[in-house]
Design a protein that fits this description.
The complex is a heterodimer of chains A (278) and B (162). In chain A, 31% of the residues are buried. In chain A, a hairpin with a 5-residue loop joins strand 1 and strand 2. Chain A starts with a helix and ends in a 9-residue tail after the last helix. The radius of gyration of chain A is 22 Å and the shape is globular. Chain A is α+β, with helices and mostly antiparallel strands and 278 residues long. Chain B is mainly α and 162 residues long. In chain B, 71% of the residues lie in helices and 0% in strands. Chain B contains 7 helices and no strands. The radius of gyration of chain B is 15 Å and the shape is globular. The chains are: A alpha+beta (278), B mainly alpha (162). Chains A and B meet through helix 1 and helix 2 of A and helix 3, helix 4 and helix 6 of B.
Chain lengths: 278, 162
């Protein structure tokens, strides 16, 4: 106690200064001003360079268990792919019959998470790939389990990802079974689809995927399952709590879906109304 | 708390109004003096570094809210400036420092730090020239603020009301 008292007496100006500057930085970091975005891009690019050096040198823990998990997932995916291939062939035949054309094409860019933010309400990742690999703001970021987030900014060699667990993240989703659509967002403690009509036939355990209306190239990325339906006595709407397939805190490796998102759709979803990295 | 220590918060209101309403008319090539910084430096030299940085943080925050600038930017820059000005605080020479040319030197230094850091936050551009950052964004506002501070110093009443 006496030591703390001495430290306080000796360094109180410095301690108060650091504390107040940190609060200021916290306020600044919540700003969407373009110059703050530029500052963030430069800062995270610099930090990412340093962090990537350390993450390359220090081997990641739990690599063995992750490999085992991946092997299992690989086998399961192989079975799934076989099944989907059959469906694909059937789909092409049916589309040919209806004279429809398949327009969706995309490429997956593997990337490694080299930095994670500490904020629980604004979780962001820094990836070790950037503009040089063709990564642009607005591209979807996924893992084998489902959607992780969307690229917010990219510098030459690094990208910043706004994850599902970010207060400013919005995505149009749908219930895979009932086809009801809504906007998913993070409240700071849970993923929620708010203001769904009470007439919507969503049930516990339903799979939630991104909608064709979403800016993520209309590709249905899995998001999670319905965990709870909050049905207030008053009003016409329900809120639906979602349990994400991806455990955001544990993500280490991701894929970026290299497709240019639709600007108008983006602005509707309020994710990149400032023009992304332009 | 002594009443004296609350005074800067009272003086801040008219100073902020002048800064927002009148000072823009005295803009020279986009450069304006920072009256709030003069107030902060003055009271930092009067009451010390710790008091100064807390005062600067609060007044910076109110400035951000009032002027619509990036929330946290003035908080950050003013706090940093007050910290620097606080190094010159001397309990036994408060009055003599404030009435000496050293006061203008401190104003200049604090204003330089304030202007450069504010420019980095609110107008950051990776391609910005270091000369432009130091001179146009830093030195000119600092010189202008120092000139205004010297006028205030010359015409300030001899008897201390503040």
């Amino acid at each position: 106690m006496r030591i703390l008292q001495n430290i306080w007496n000796q360094f109180k100006e410095y301690l108060v200064l650091v504390f107040l500057l940190l609060i200021s930085v916290l306020f600044i970091s919540h700003s969407d001003h373009p110059s703050v975005k530029n500052l963030k891009t430069t800062t995270f690019g610099t930090f990412a360079f340093i962090t990537s050096f350390f993450s390359d040198v220090i081997p990641a823990g739990g690599l063995k268990s992750e490999n085992a998990k991946l092997r299992k997932q690989n086998a399961e995916l192989m079975l799934e792919v076989n099944k989907l291939r059959e469906f694909g062939i059937e789909n092409v035949e049916l589309k040919n019959l209806l004279s429809l054309r398949d327009t969706v094409s995309y490429q997956l860019i593997p990337a490694k998470v080299i930095l994670k933010s500490f904020s629980t309400d604004q979780t962001t990742f820094t990836l070790d790939k950037g503009k040089e690999e063709g990564i642009k703001a607005g591209m979807a970021v996924i893992t084998g389990e489902g959607l992780v987030g969307v690229v917010e900014q990219s510098s030459e060699n690094y990208s910043l990802v706004r994850t599902l667990k970010h207060l400013n993240f919005r995505v149009v989703v749908k219930d895979q079974r009932s086809r009801f659509q809504g906007i998913l967002h993070w409240t700071g403690s849970q993923l929620i689809i708010s203001n769904l009509p009470k007439t919507s036939e969503i049930k516990l355990g339903d799979r939630i995927i991104t909608s064709e209306l979403s800016s993520f190239i209309g590709q249905p990325f899995p998001i999670g399952i319905v965990k709870k339906i909050i049905n207030p006595d008053e009003g016409y709407f329900n809120n639906v709590l979602i349990k994400s397939f991806v455990e955001i805190e544990k993500v280490e490796n991701v894929f970026i879906v290299a497709a240019i998102p639709h600007k108008i759709k983006n602005s509707v979803e309020l994710n990149f109304y400032n023009g992304g990295d332009e | 708390m002594k009443f004296e220590k609350i005074l800067p918060f009272i003086y801040f209101i008219p100073v902020l109004l002048i800064q927002m309403v009148i000072v823009p008319y005295f803009e020279l090539r986009g450069v304006v003096p920072d009256l709030i910084l003069i107030l902060i430096v003055f009271y930092t030299l009067k009451f010390g570094q710790l008091y100064g940085i807390i005062l600067a943080f609060i007044l910076g925050g109110i400035t951000d809210f009032s002027t619509g600038s990036i929330l946290g930017s003035s908080m950050f820059t003013k706090t940093l400036s007050a910290f620097i000005a606080g190094y010159f605080f001397n309990e036994n020479q408060t009055v003599s420092i404030i009435k000496s040319p050293l006061f203008l030197g401190i104003i200049f230094l604090s204003s330089l730090v304030n202007a450069i850091s504010f420019s980095l936050i609110s107008n950051f551009d990776i391609s910005i020239n270091i000369f432009s950052l130091l001179f146009e964004e830093g030195m000119l506002p600092a010189i202008y603020t120092t000139v205004i501070a010297s006028i205030v110093m010359i015409f300030a009443p001899k008897r201390s009301y503040i």
